[in-house]
Amino acid sequence: MKGNNERKESAAGSFIRRYCNNKLAVAGFFVLLTIALIVILVPPFLPFSEAEIDALAFNAPPGGKHILGGDDVGRDVLSRLLYGGRVSLFVGIISTAVSVVIGIPLGMIAAFYRGVFEIIVMRLSDIFMSFPATILILFLVSMFGPSIITVTVVIGVLGWPKFARQIYGSVLSVREKDYIEGGIAIGARDSKIITRYILPNAIAPIFISITFRIASAIILESSLSFLGMGVQPPAASWGNMLYNAQSITILTSRPWMWVPPGLALVITILSINFIGNGMRDALDPKTKI
Q1: Ranked by mean pLDDT, which of 5-14, 26-35, 68-77, 212-221 comes out on top?
Q2: How many CA atoms lie within 13 A of 126 on its CB side?
Q3: Transmembrane stretches, by residue range (predicted)?
Q4: Taking residues 6-31, what's their average pLDDT?
Q5: Which of 1, 191, 193, 203 is the most buried (most CB within 10 A)?
Q6: Tell me: the pLDDT tens digits for 58-109?
Q7: Is 20 within 8 Å of 26 (Cβ atoms)?
Q8: Cα angle, residue 211 at apex, residues 208 and 114 outer, rounded to 5°
């Protein structure tokens, strides 16, 4: 038991060391952490809410009480930027969690038991992946009505095949190991074999996919909101802030209405991708860091 713990600690220590040696990955982690803390902790202390209208803020440039200016309705851009950040991160994280909760159990059971269940799960994933994702999401959101919950659930439900297929391949390779075959031979319970021996050895690549899926979900939510089918006003998201700034007048003469959400979106996605790349390199023993 002691030897096993030492090996686990050694593997964790090696991962942390290799990850910390990747400067972009470390920078991405701290930038994302900073963004998350700001959008969670700062909004309650702002003088304006995301939907509050101030006549003096109507198309107002940055300055005074409105640090980033006001929009074409008279709402504070800074407040909408931070509250919108909450929504974008919420959709990205929760929708990815929904995909993981659906996809990983299905993929693991399909790979472990094979047979009819394997055929059903794999064909279902083929069907889900055969549809153009954006068009299908637009159809479902329009059918159920655009809202934060609808967008989150739809993106999450449609994202499970990737995780199911990935864990399916990992479990297939781990399942052939001698210690798994030995556990099956001595009559160990399937649940114990799956949770104690297969899952810990097959789950590592999933963490990398989770980071990239969060980034993809944030982009999807922003795209839907930009098209008017995502988060609906007066609630704010970075996507619908960009949607409200589509006119030529705003794009050319009022950059404070679209530059902040655009930059926030780019910086957040880059940070998440840097974290994912760092995790991938840290988990790959062939990568020199």
Answers
A1: 26-35
A2: 6
A3: 24-46, 89-113, 133-160, 198-220, 256-276
A4: 80
A5: 193
A6: 888 888 788 888 888 888 899 999 999 999 999 999 999 999 999 999 998 8
A7: yes
A8: 50
Q: Using CA atoms, how far apart are residues 34 and 279, in angstroms rounded to an integer? A: 19
Structure tokens at 9: 């600690």
More confident residue, 212 or 234: 212
Q: Let me know how long the chain is.
A: 289
**In this model, does residue 30 exceed pLDDT 90?**
yes
What value, to the nearest 5°, has the Cα angle with vertex 208 and ends 205 and 213? Answer: 125
pLDDT (0 to 100) of residue 201: 77
Q: Which residues, in sequence order, are CB contacts of 282 under 8 Å at separation 6+?
A: 15, 16, 18, 19, 22, 25, 289
Break the chain into its structural domains and give their ranges: 15-281
Q: Is the dihedral of CA 161, 164, 170, 172 positive or negative?
A: negative
d(CA 273, CA 251): 28
Distance CA 185, CA 176 (A): 13
Calculate the alpha carbon distances from 192 to 90, 113, 275 in Å.
Answer: 33, 14, 32
Strand residue runs (E) in the chain: none
Cα–Cα dist 137/153, whole Å: 10
Residue 280: how many other CB atoms lie within 10 Å = 19
Measured from the Cβ of residue 18, the count of other Cβ atoms closer than 10 Å reads: 20
Which amino acid makes up residue 206? I
CA atoms within 13 A on the CB side of 238: 27
Assigned architecture for domain 15-281? Orthogonal Bundle (1.10)
